[in-house]
Amino acid sequence: MFHAKLAPMPGRLFLTTPLPDIARHFGCATGGLTSDPPRHNIAPGQEVLVLTGRGPRRMRWGLIPVGRVNARGRPVMETIINARSETVFSKSAFQGIARGIVPADGWYEWTGEKRKKTAWRIHHADHRLLAFAAIWDIWTAPGGQELAQVAMVTCPPSADVSGVHHRMGVLLSPPQYDTWLNGEENDLAALMQPYPDGQLTVEIAQNVDWNGA
To answer: Mean pLDDT, the chain, as a whole number?
Structure first.
């Protein structure tokens, strides 16, 4: 049985920007996809929109690592929600992985003791669309069905985020999109850095249905 890691970062996403606006931002077609209703609570295990070098598609958030092994040759037994930038392109578990971008308007994190946690809502200070660096692949189920699946890439936090989490998702700026999707691995280290300080707003999340979308 595979077990999901229970403390991913980002914890949950929200995306309310309509698909046509997302496509215009990234300079791509919608790929025949239709817009989702505004989503205020996107959790690991659910579908997320992913921009790839071949256009947008929806994928399951969480890599099922069937057939992947760690540095010791042992099977990876945890569903991979996120991947550390420091090792994502050196670990054997990620060999042959593709790169993508997950658009979001922001994400949530939690601090505090169990049952007394505070939920934090994090977004761009100017409410711009955020672009999370991600990795993805296709899992083929025993019956032959294929499932596209994705994980976020994380790095140390910026000063804006460090008070609520010790990691943050790698956030790309528009000039970096093509390099992340199509560039050489040697060019990626410069992209996998904390987002510039002062660009993100962290505020208490209010009126979110944590059991729904």
So the answer is: 89
**How does DSSP classify residue 75?**
B
Which residues are within 8 A (CB) of 61 and not within 5 positions of it... i.e. 6 or more apart?
A: 42, 43, 44, 45, 46, 47, 48, 81, 149, 150, 151
- Structure tokens given for 6: 């229970």
Find tokens 């990795």 and name the residue: 135
* Interval 146-180: pLDDT, tens: 989 999 999 999 999 999 999 999 999 999 999 99
Name the CATH code of domain 3-204 (choices 3.90.1680.10, 3.40.50.920, 3.40.630.30, 3.40.50.720). Answer: 3.90.1680.10
Q: Which of 89, 86, 61, 201 is nearest to 155 (CA)?
A: 86
In whole angstroms, give the CA distance from residue 74 to residue 76: 6
pLDDT tier for residue 6 given thresholds of 50, 70 and 90: very low
- pTM of the predicted model over 0.85: yes
